[in-house]
Design a protein that fits this description.
It contains 5 helices and 5 strands. With 147 residues, it is α/β, with parallel strands linked by helices. The protein is globular and about 40 Å long. The C terminus is likely disordered.
Length: 147
């Protein structure tokens, strides 16, 4: 099922989600998704799917997510957090449940091993949903320091 964007559609018809991780550079994903949402009069969603059953395993994760969720809310986004051992399926379920048209993802790291990566699984699910994927390129170390 392909969900088209229509810039003249009423708010709620077009929906974009930024899938974030508990890292400072997720602000760039939120910024990109907010720009797309503004351009297409779309609802903005921010989603974090934590692998496992708790965000409290890593000491800094709750504070970082709180900061990112506040940042996303300031941009007009609705924030969502899920915990799951199957991140790809959780994202796919979210896309279906909320009728998401576009998804903003960070560029995955270079493949280091053979086999299907988590990103490959997510991409496969999103293609089945017909959701447009927007990839935000990684910043080079020098650019990240200057930003």
């Amino acid at each position: 099922m392909v969900r088209d964007f229509d810039a003249s559609a009423p708010m709620g018809t077009n929906k974009v989600v930024a899938c974030i991780t508990a890292q400072y550079n997720s602000e760039r994903l939120i910024d990109t998704a907010a720009e797309v949402a503004d351009k297409f009069n779309a609802e903005l969603h921010i989603l974090h799917v934590n692998k496992g059953s708790s965000i409290f395993i890593n000491e800094g994760t709750p504070a970082m997510l709180d900061r990112l969720f506040e940042y996303g809310s300031e941009k007009g986004g609705m924030v969502h957090m899920l915990c799951s051992d199957d991140v790809a399926s959780s994202i796919g379920g979210f896309i279906e449940e909320y009728g998401i048209n576009k998804i903003v993802l960070g560029e995955p790291p270079a493949k280091m091993s053979k086999g299907e990566s988590e990103f490959d699984k997510i991409e496969k699910i999103l293609k089945k949903c017909g959701t447009e994927i927007i990839i935000v390129k990684r910043q080079k170390e020098k650019e990240a320091v200057e930003a």
